[in-house]
Structure formats: C-alpha cells, structure tokens
Amino acid sequence: MKLSAVFLLLLLGIAQAVAELSDPRDERRFNELAKTLRCMVCQNQSIADSDAELARDFREQVQKKINEGQSDTEIISYMVERYGDYILYRPPFNMVTAILWLGPFILVIVGFLMILRIVRRQEQPQADTEQQARLRQLLEKSADSGNESG
Amino acid sequence: MRVRYLLPIAVFLLMVAVFGLVLYQVSQGRNIKEVPSPLIGKAVPQFELPLLLAPQRIFSSEQLKGRVSLVNVWASWCVSCRYEHDLLVRMSRDTDIPIIGINYKDERVDALKWLRDMGDPYEASIFDYDGHLAIDWGVYGTPETFVVDQRGVIRYKHTGPITMEKLRDEIMPLVNKLRKAGDTV
User: Fold this and answer.
1) For B15-71, how does the pLDDT look when each residue is reduced to its tens digit (9 = 90+)?
2) Is A40 in contact with B35 (Cβ distance < 8 A)?
3) What is B142-178 written as a DSSP string?
4) Rg of chain A over all Cα atoms, to the nearest angstrom
5) Which residues lie below 8 Å from residue B16, measured CB to CB, with a gap of 6+?
6) CB B35 to CB A80 under 8 A?
7) For chain A, counts of helices (H) and of strands (E)
8) What are the chain B neighbours of A84 within 8 Å (beta carbons)?
9) Residues of A with CB below 8 A from B39's CB?
10) B57-73 b/e (C-beta count within 10 Å ≥ 16 → b)
11) How does residue A105 score in pLDDT terms, banded at 50, 70 and 90?
C-alpha cells in the first residue's frame, strides 16, 4: 500500500516534469528558439545541442519565458541585452556585422570581375582582325623577298 | 603594369599586419574569448534575493546604489575563483571599496566552508542558487567582476580571475574616477 503510494507520487512527478511545455506549439517554439541561441561557453554549439550547465540554464530560462507568455522577439531581445549579438547564430545586420554579411558577396563579385577581365584579354588578339591582316601581309612580303634573293 | 603585382602583395602584407597585431595583443594578455558585454552603461538588473550568510535577510538591487562597488560572481566549485580570491581578500583589507558577492549555483554549506577556509572579502554575498540572477547579469564564465557606480549603472566587466595588473591598471583608476565624478555631482 505504502509502496504504491510512493510509486504514484513518482509518476505524478514525472508527469509534471514533462508537462512543463504542454502545448505542442510552445514545444515547437522552444525547439526553434533553442536552435538560434548560442551556448556561450561551447565550441560552436547551440543551447539545444549542448549539455553544458550554462546551456541547460539558458534552456530553462527560455522555457520559463514561454510559459510566462512572452513572444519570440521578447525572449531573444532579453538574451541579446545581456549577452550581445554573439549569442545569436543569425546575427543582425549592422555596422559591426556588415563585413560578415556582405563579405561573401563582395568576394563573389570580385572573383567574377577577375574572370571577366582574363577572358576579355584572351579574346582580344583574335578580335583585332586589322592587325592580323597586316601581320599576314608582312609575312607574305618577307617570304616573297626571301625567294627573290635565294 | 607594376600595380598588378603590387596589389596582391599589399593585400598579403595587410593580412600579415592584422594577424600580427591580434597575436601581439594575445601575447600581451588579451583574452580573445572575452565577449564585450552589452550591459556596460546599463542599470543593474532588478532583483531581490536572500543573503548567503543570513538567508532570512533579502538583498535588493536598490542597495547597490549610492556608492561605487565591485560585484564579484563566485562559487566554491569554480576553480579559477581560487586564483583571484587572495587578491579580493587583500583588497577588502587594504582598500575601502565594498565588494558584493554573487554566490553562483552553489550549495550553501560548500559556500560557507569556502569563506571560512579562505577568508571572506565580501560585504555581503547574494545567494543565487538557481543561477537566474547570473543570467540577468550576462554571466557565462565565473569568476566575473563588475564595477557598479553610484547610480547603480554597470561601468566595467571582467570575465575570468582578476589579476594584480587588472586591479591596478583598470579597476582602481576607474573606481577613483567614478568616486570623484560622484563627489562633484
């Protein structure tokens, strides 16, 4: 009798732990948020991936705020206010992060311009038909004079 | 014609200069893992939590106002907290700068034993058992040390154990400056 009471209490405890985010929509929101927030003390892991103590605390905090009815942007700005943009895996576009966002595009454009220049330079001699005609003329001329003297 | 060869060399030299500068700073003790805190210049987070030594008493963020103080986040399980503890003890003895501790995710018995064994430099230690207060302070690597001014605004943050040099070159001058500025207001 006593044992079954203990067992029942245990079950209730488990049920409560699971019920922290009862709404599947909240669960989904939590998973999405946890993926976008960086575990500050890990090597490139989100707080969803990490087992670190701090990541666990961050998850707890996010969960708590979802339960309090806060929106995603409220939760994210709460974290950014305390830990800076570094906590975001998708940093916002501003003066500091401009090179991060634009760098790859600039590199692609520079690369494309370089290819364009190289290709143009290779095409140029063939396009210059006037010079080629003169060259052929000169060659023929020298060949003729060579025959005459020989 | 010659510009074409100069450009790659210039880019290369620029990269060498940038990497060299950062490596030099690291050799001079710059911590590249340190993330600049957005909390600097902001008011301390509002809180009310019990004290470590007197659990029945509540410490509120309001009590940080009115004077310049150091807020130090520590724990008995935190290994690098040991490195700075002696310095904090000496500071509490030799200067009149109040040090407020935030005891971070610690067991009360362990924390009390640590203070008994190693000395207690703290005017008061706030007991942050679940670590929620620390998240409000943007803590990610204990020990962390903050300088809070008379209006309760965070003016400085250091992650990791503070050293004699940090104390002498950064913290003390800042505290003195803030105190003087506070006198004239």
Assistant:
1) 999 999 988 888 877 776 667 778 888 889 989 999 999 889 999 999 999 899 999
2) yes
3) SSEEEEE-TTSBEEEEEES---HHHIIIIIHHHHHHH
4) 35
5) none
6) no
7) 6, 0
8) 35-38, 138
9) 81-82
10) eebebeebbebbbbbbb
11) very high
Contact B131 A86 (CB under 8 A): no
A57 and B138 within 8 Å at the Cβ level: the answer is no
Mean pLDDT of all residues belonging to chain A = 79
Q: What does the domain layout of chain B look like in residue ranges?
A: 1-30, 37-184
Q: Which helix (H) or strand (E) holds B139?
A: none
CA dihedral sign of residues B102, B107, B108, B111:
negative
Q: For domain B37-184, give the fold.
A: Glutaredoxin (3.40.30)
Q: Is B135 on the interface with A (CB under 8 A)?
A: yes
Candidates B37, B132, B137; nearest CB to A84: B37
